[in-house]
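Usage

Read records sequentially. Each one opens with the input sequence:
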Amino acid sequence: MSSNDKPPVAQVANYRIMKLIATGGMSSVYKACDIKTGKLVALKILDLELAKNPILIERFHREAKHASILSHKNIVAFYESGHADNIHYLVMELVSGIDLGQYIRRKVRIDTEESRRIIIQACKALNHAHEHGLIHRDIKPSNFLLADDRGRCRVKLADLGLSRMENEEDYRVTRAGTTVGTVDYMSPEQARDAGLADIRSDIYSLGCTFYHMLAGSPPFAEGGIGERVYRHIAVNPPDIRDINSQVSTELWEIIRRMLAKRPEDRFQTPIELLTALRALTKDSLEFQNSQKPVQPESIETPTPTDTPEDVQSPSSPLTRTRLGKVTTTPDIQTNSEKNPDVLGITAEQKQAASEQFTYATEVLRSQGGPAYAQELLLAAVKLDPTNLLYRKMLREVIREHTHKGGWFTALSMIHARSRLRAAIRANEYRLALELGEEILVRRPGDISTQVEMAESAEALGLHGLAMWLLQEAISSSPKNLNLLRSLASLLERQENYRQAIEVLVKIRQLTPSDFSVNDRIKNLAVTETIARTLKQDS
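and closes with the structure output:
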C-alpha cells in the first residue's frame, strides 16, 4: 500500500474496512467492523512496501507484543494481531474522540487545571507501562487520545510502535547510536542514542507535551532539526511564565524538573511525578501575584440589536440625537474592555474621546451635518478603540446618513485597503482597527474589512470587541458565509463550542453540499464534551 487513502483490500481476516482514520510513517489506521461480532475496531495495517523489510515487520509486530501485556483504562486496548493475504495488521480499541495535538491546535493554550488533569491521566498510563517494564519512546500530543467515556473525558495513550522493554535487546530493530522519536519532544539522551532511553526519557517527553499545552508550542519549536536537537541537549527551556502568566512558580518548577537535561535530575518514576501533580492546590497551580502581567479579559458581548441606550451608564447625562435614539455622554469607563490598559490608553485619551463623543451628539441634536458628526465619532473611536458605545453610535450614524460619493474616490479606497493590509502584516493591530473604521465610514458593507478588524481586535486581546464586530456585520449580511465562518472560528477559539455549533448549523443550511461542515460539527461536539467533563474530572 503506497497510498494513504485507499485500503489494500476491502477486508482483512474477519475485519471489513470502513474508512481511513489516520496515516503514519509505517502504517495506516482504519475504522473496521468485525463481521463475526459486529464490533467496531481500529485496524492498523503495515504499508505493503515496508512489509518487504523483515526488520520493519518485526518492529510492527513488536508493538503487538508490547500492547498485549498492558491493560489499563488510560491505554488504548489491544485485541489481536495477524498476517493474512500478505497484510500485517493489528486490531485495537476504536476510540471516539480527538488526539491531544488536535485539541491544542483548537485551543492554542489549555488552561492550567485542565492541563494538569490531562497529564495526571497520562502519568497513570506511563506508570502502568513502567510497572510492566515498558518504555514508550515516542510520547507526544498526537499519541494521547481524548475519549468520551460515558460523559467523562478519558485520556488514552496510543501507538507503541517505538516502545521497548527495559531488558529487551533493541539493536535488531534500532541500531546502536541511532535516534528514534519525535524531535520536538525528544529527551537529550534519546537524541544521542535511542538505546539510552528509559522511563525518565518518557517523563522528559511528557514535560515537553505539558509545556506545549500551556505555552502553545513545544519548548524548542524554532529552527531546523539539528538546531532543535542541540537545544534539547544543551539549552534550558524558556521560562513558561514569560509566555503564560497564569502558570505559577510551583507548576513551573514541576515542568522544569521534568525537562532537566540529566535523567537523574528529573522525576525518577511516573508515580513520583503523579504525587507532585496531585499536591498542587488551586492557589499553587495558578499565579496569584498581581505583579505578573494579567491577560486582558473580554467584555460582555452585546447583541447586534443593541442600541446606544441599551448600554448607558446610570449616572451619565442623556441626550437625544438626530437619529431619535437616547444615548449617553459616557464616563471614562463606559463600555470599555475590562482591562483599560490593554492598549496603553491614558486617562487623558479616554477623556478626549468622551468629549469628541459628546460634541458629536450635540451636532446631531442641533441638526448639524452628519459628515462632521462622523468625523468626531471616528476621532473618539481612534482615541479609545475599546469603547463599544462610540462604535455603535458611529455605525448608527453611517446607517442613517450614508455618503453619496464622499471623501474617497475608487482609487483612494484601494489605497486605504492597502494601508489596512500593510498594518496587519506589520502586526499594528490598533492601526488596523482605525483604518478599518475609516473604510467602513465610506463603504459600510465591506465584508473583508469587517473580518480583518475582528481578527485585529482578537489579536489585541479585545475578544468582546471582536465578537461585536462580527455580530454587527452579520446583522446586515446574515447569510454571508465568510462572516459566519469567521464567527464560528472565533467562538471556537473562545471555547464557546455550543454557540459555534449553532453557527455551523446555519452554515450547513446555506451550503448543504459542504460535507466538511458536518465533520466540524461532530468534532466540536466531542471537544465540548471533553472540555466540560475535564472541568468535572479530578
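Summary fields computed downstream for this record:
- The first strand starts at residue 11 and ends at 12.
- DSSP finds 19 helices and 13 strands in the chain.
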